[in-house]
Amino acid sequence: MSVEGALKAALEKHCSHLGSSFVHAGSSRIKVEPSGKLLFGKVASPEAQVLGEAASLRALRKACEQAGLNDEECIVPRIYGSGTSEKEGRTSQGYLITDYLTLAPGLDSSGQAKLGRRLAQVHSASPPERRYGFQVPTHCGVTEQDNTFESDWRTFWERRRIGSLVERIGDKRLSALQEEMQSSGVYDLLLNPVRDVQPSCIHGDLWSGNVGTDKATGEPMIFDSSYYGHGEAELGIAQMFGGFTQDFYEAYHEIVSGWALRTCCGGR
């Protein structure tokens, strides 16, 4: 069945160089004719969430390129286009078009090591500017992330990751605990030692559900959000939710060392 509507317009705008027509080949899967190339395409609401995902993929893809990773080694899919689709009388939607990946859940030992090594290379790439945050809001599930840029990591984490959520939740007890953490020096103790660490392009929500193996290439892939922050925040999330083996951590630490020395009993 031919692709119609807003998605067809987006494909013709961004992907006409790939083929002359586009047909549905399953849910969110588009086949380009006559080449047979498969694309992932979606038009969805809320617009900001889709555009945040697109900006995240672009940032991670650029960091992969800066790290010297080739197309096969890149840990995120190629993005062809994104934008806003508006229909009269309807709320605007966001659209996103990328390469279509058939992913197997999880990573084998080799994939764990490859991802650890490549993630460390991405974290070592120089960011566009020395600030912490991101140019657009992104989402963790349905929760919008406050990515307002800050000049140091301690301020970003305290205000934009913890403080922003506490404020939006609006719970008096939680707000009191936040104030206690500030007044008692908890943030000073935990974050002042890494206040001026160089920002990296990180995923920010790295767990086993956001990782898979590309069945076509056997390479590890990640997807969804990103922002410019401390690379060790990536490892903290990965360790908290699990899904990563010693192969992953050892390969990462071959390139970026020191994290294990700053943890208590393997993590904090």
Automatic annotation (TrEMBL):
It catalyses: N(6)-D-ribulosyl-L-lysyl-[protein] + ATP = N(6)-(3-O-phospho-D-ribulosyl)-L-lysyl-[protein] + ADP + H(+). It comes from the Eukaryota. The keyword Transferase applies. One of its GO terms (molecular function) is protein-ribulosamine 3-kinase activity. Its EC number is 2.7.1.172. Keywords: Kinase, Transferase. It is an enzyme of class 2 (transferase). Belongs to the fructosamine kinase family. This is protein-ribulosamine 3-kinase. It comes from Tilletia walkeri.
